[in-house]
Amino acid sequence: CDVGAHKMWMARMFRCEYPNTCIISNGFASMGIAVPGAIAAKLVHPERNVVAVTGDAGFMMNSQEIETAIRCKLPIVILIWNDSSYGLIEWKQMNQFQRTSNVRFSNPDFVTYAEAFGAKGYRVESTADLPTILKEALANDTVSIIDCPVDYRENIKLTEQMGTLVCPT
Question: For residue 14, is it within any domain?
Answer without folding.
Answer: yes
